[in-house]
Amino acid sequence: MNLEWLDLPELFPDFEQPGRWLPLLERHAALLEGASTRVRVTSVAPAEAVRRQYAESLELLRVIEAVARGSEALADIGSGGGFPGVVMAIARPAMHVHLVEPLQKRAALLAELSRELGLANVTVHAIRAEEAGRGALRESQPVVTARAVAELRELVEYTSPLAQVGGVLALPKGSALERELAAAAESLTTLGCLHESSTPMRAEISSTLSVAVFRKTAATPAGYPRRAGVPGKRPL
Asked: How many CB atoms neighbour CB 166 within 10 A?
């Protein structure tokens, strides 16, 4: 079942001032559509966009706020067209959102979207996750997320170096989650992360996605993340 824009305030009553954020989400969608001939950021059909991009991003934020209350910053790895990072920045203007996007055209689009939408709480980092994890963002973020980026054992190496000790990785995953969790055991141990919970998204938003939550319990070892490309070629 597809959702309409006006379904979102009913699904997310805890997100105050829908009269502010809903028009901004619609404007974001229009800007992405206008840029689609220049930069390809999604394969989601327009009829499914409200549910699969915007509702899923807001649902991820809802789960994050239940496990990491009061967090004032977040890093989104592989932001693409702004899912979930730009959506979260719109819904929570007091939260500073770091968008890490290695593809230069997409990063430029994210910066353009942020300006057009007046999002002063967004910083775009046009670098790979491995570079971000060794730079100024290392062990600085209370929450790190990533949507549709990689298998979990690889994804933990991209995301965990950015999280502060005690911080949270919140990673939406599909029906392969249990298999990926089993395969990622070594990666989680090596990188000091503990699987804390898996929360299914509400059925009206997604029948397949869950949010896997990991707590970072120790500092990232000095050798991680490995150099660009290595986590994908040789996952832990």
From this structure: 11
